[in-house]
């Protein structure tokens, strides 16, 4: 017999059963659910990544909705199990939902929520941190200090790259890519080149206005360019940060060939999804080009790194923590819980998933709506007029 899964239960007499596959930061998300007659069951298993079988056991025979994680494989098997248990609501505690088969969810009439907006700045700040850490060799220098190797200032010690006046390249200039671009432009007076399927009009206007401000102050103005091809970004930029969604069009977007056209001393940052880079090709490139540096938050086969990556001094690696600020993680939990609650209660879907502040305001009741349901149209869910 399978070992029972350990859980923590809130409001045992609640009418609706909502399962969270992981403990999540804060308590507001729990309160919002229990106040609305939900029994909340939180999986407290020590195991980091739950299997499909573990989640089927959690869903059980009666489950109205599940809050899940980006490490879980939400496809046909789980959505059919959820539907059999009477459930129609699922939310990822993440903005990216490449772990979710939305077609399967549609087939079983399950709403799929995600958590955009609340993590935009936090994620962009981590991408900016990785850019700086890689450009200025901060991790290498830290290790050198701790190893007791510092025996005095030297003209050639840990020389890195100056950002001011250089070009920042952004691939995927959506919410996070645009926020990152602004940080690098405003903070370090970098010029912008970006590639996206859509024009980033607000970002372009910001750079134009900031350039005019600098010029009026007698400083060198910053500039922007929307690249016709991704290769243009790779050839021209000194620091390149990847922020697209992961789908068929972005899988191995950065491969051996594209790495070879980048500047030999470029900095490449990835805080989107690991498979956007062919990581084995990247390891080879790092070995052959010691001046080329990367900052990685995500990996092709998490939690693993491809062989050789950990040994490369020109790589800064952190464990998928880009959205890990307290405010953001509590906000993600709140949005995910409200996505599930909204569907269970038959609330409409918030009409602008980018404007979620009202759901995050702790001193007021959130509006009766699901903040962000990605398959609302396919399921014919009503849109909130609030
Ligand atoms: N490392 C982490 O902890 C985090 C990672 N993410 C990842 O970042 C991604 C982006 O998040 P947001 O900015 O909120 O999403 P978004 O939807 O606002 O931006 C994504 C952009 O990528 C563009 N894009 C799509 N296909 C493309 C292609 N083939 N070439 C170039 N651009 C393309 C889209 O047009 C869009 O502008 C998420 O999907 C998620 O995978 C998000 C948050 C935290
Ligand atoms: O939200 C996401 O997509 C993440 O990767 C975690 O914040």
UniProtKB/TrEMBL annotation:
User: Where are the annotated segments for Disordered?
Assistant: 360-386
Which positions fall inside the D-isomer specific 2-hydroxyacid dehydrogenase NAD-binding domain? 130-322
Question: Known catalysed reaction(s)?
Answer: (R)-glycerate + NAD(+) = 3-hydroxypyruvate + NADH + H(+)
Which BP terms does GO give this entry? oxidative photosynthetic carbon pathway
Q: Which UniProt keywords apply?
A: Glycolate pathway, NAD, Oxidoreductase, Peroxisome
Q: List the InterPro entries.
A: D-isomer_2-hydroxyacid_DH (IPR050223), D-isomer_2_OHA_DH_cat_dom (IPR006139), D-isomer_DH_CS (IPR029753), D-isomer_DH_CS1 (IPR029752), D-isomer_DH_NAD-bd (IPR006140), NAD(P)-bd_dom_sf (IPR036291)
Start and end residues of each D-isomer specific 2-hydroxyacid dehydrogenase catalytic domain: 28-347
Pfam families tied to this protein: 2-Hacid_dh, 2-Hacid_dh_C
MF annotations from Gene Ontology: glyoxylate reductase (NADPH) activity; hydroxypyruvate reductase (NADH) activity; NAD binding
- Origin: domain of life: Eukaryota
Broad class of the protein's primary localization: other
Question: PANTHER family recorded for this chain?
Answer: 2-HYDROXYACID DEHYDROGENASE-RELATED, GLYOXYLATE REDUCTASE 1
Protein family membership: Belongs to the D-isomer specific 2-hydroxyacid dehydrogenase family.
This protein's name? glycerate dehydrogenase
Native source organism of the sequence: Dendrobium nobile
């Amino acid at each position: 017999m399978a070992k029972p899964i350990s859980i923590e239960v809130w409001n045992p007499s609640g009418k609706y059963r909502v399962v969270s596959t992981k403990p999540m930061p804060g308590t507001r998300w729990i309160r919002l659910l229990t106040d609305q007659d939900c029994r909340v069951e939180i999986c407290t298993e020590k195991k980091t990544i739950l299997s499909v079988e573990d989640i089927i056991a959690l869903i059980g025979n009666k489950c109205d909705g599940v809050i899940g994680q980006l490490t879980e494989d939400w496809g046909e098997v789980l959505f059919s199990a959820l539907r059999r248990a009477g459930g129609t609501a699922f939310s990822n505690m993440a903005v990216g939902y490449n772990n979710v088969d939305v077609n399967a969810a549609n087939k079983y009439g399950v709403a799929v929520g995600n958590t955009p907006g609340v993590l935009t700045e936090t994620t962009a700040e981590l991408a900016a941190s990785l850019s700086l850490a890689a450009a200025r060799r901060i991790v290498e220098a830290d290790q050198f200090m701790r190893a007791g190797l510092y025996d005095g200032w030297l003209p050639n010690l840990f020389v890195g790259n100056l950002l001011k006046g250089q070009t920042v390249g952004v691939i995927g200039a959506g919410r996070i890519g645009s926020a990152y671009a602004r940080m690098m432009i405003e903070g370090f007076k970098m010029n912008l080149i970006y590639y996206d399927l859509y024009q980033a009009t607000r970002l372009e206007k910001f750079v134009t206005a900031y350039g005019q401000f600098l010029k009026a102050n007698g400083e060198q103005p910053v500039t922007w360019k929307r690249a016709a091809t991704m290769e243009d970004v790779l050839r021209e930029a000194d620091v390149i940060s990847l922020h697209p969604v992961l789908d068929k069009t972005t899988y191995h977007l950065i491969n051996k060939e594209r790495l070879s056209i980048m500047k030999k001393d470029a900095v490449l940052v990835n805080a989107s999804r690991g498979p956007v880079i062919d990581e084995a090709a990247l390891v080879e490139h790092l070995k052959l080009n010691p001046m080329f540096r990367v900052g990685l938050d995500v990996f092709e086969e998490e939690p693993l790194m491809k062989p050789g990556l950990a040994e490369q001094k020109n790589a800064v690696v952190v464990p998928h923590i880009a959205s890990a600020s307290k405010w953001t993680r509590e906000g993600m939990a709140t949005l995910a819980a409200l996505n599930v609650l909204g569907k269970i209660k038959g609330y409409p879907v918030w009409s602008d998933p980018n404007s979620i502040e009202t759901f995050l305001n702790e001193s007021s009741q959130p509006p009766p709506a699901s903040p962000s349901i990605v398959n609302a149209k396919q399921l014919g869910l009503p849109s909130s007029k609030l």
